[in-house]
Amino acid sequence: MAAGEYVSVSSQADTERADLARERQELAEGPESEHAELTAIYVNRGLDAALASEVATQLMQHDALGAHARDELGLSDSLSARPVQAALASAAMFALGAALPLLVVVVFPAAALMWAVSGSSLLFLALLGSVSARAGGASVLVGASRVTFWGALAMALTAGVGALFGVAV
């Protein structure tokens, strides 16, 4: 899971770097057209043309690439892709998510394991979905429901594939 997250977020970081390199080249080759582009962005956000041009001028004098990265490309330092951080967070959450059902295996008898692990996994998904939603300021009910629904669907599909091939999963 962590490796997949690292690869995915690294691809995002590569795209961000490529976008910045392209923007840097465009600024070097045609600063006037880049100024016009930034001006148009500010006009579309509600500034009149004269003020938008002045804002673009001042921002480009201060940090042209930063202004274009932020306002044209939607990139900022605080929101940039961080592959290692994403991988570590994924690994930690995966380990926590796996530890809870393993604890159930220790507590319940073998005859009840299938239902105990399935049910507790859904309960833990609902709990973690709630915590995540609350941490992000989103609806706890929506967050828990979404994670629980997709987790249940994944379990059902996995069980269905196992049954289709005669393998207990």
Could you please describe the fold and organization of this structure?
This protein is an all-alpha fold and 169 residues long. The chain folds into two domains: 2-79, no CATH class; 108-164, no CATH class. Helix content is 82%, strand content 0%. It contains six helices and no strands. Helix 4 packs antiparallel against helix 5. The longest helix is centred in the first third of the chain and has 28 residues, at 2-29. 11% of the residues are buried. The model has no long low-confidence stretch (mean pLDDT 90).
List keywords for this structure.
single chain, mainly alpha, 6 helices
Average pLDDT works out at 90
Secondary-structure content class: mainly alpha
Please compute the radius of gyration using only Cα atoms: 24 Å
Shape, per Cα inertia axes: elongated
Q: How many angstroms separate the termini?
A: 19 Å
Could you tell me the strand content as a percent range? Answer: under 5%
Helix count, DSSP H or I runs of 4 or more residues: 6
Fraction of residues in H or I helices: over 70%
Poorly predicted segments: none
* SSE ordering: HHHHHH
Main sheet overview: none
Question: Please, how many domains?
Answer: 2
What's the β-strand tally?
A: 0
Task: Give a brief outline of the structure.
The chain has 169 residues and is mainly α.
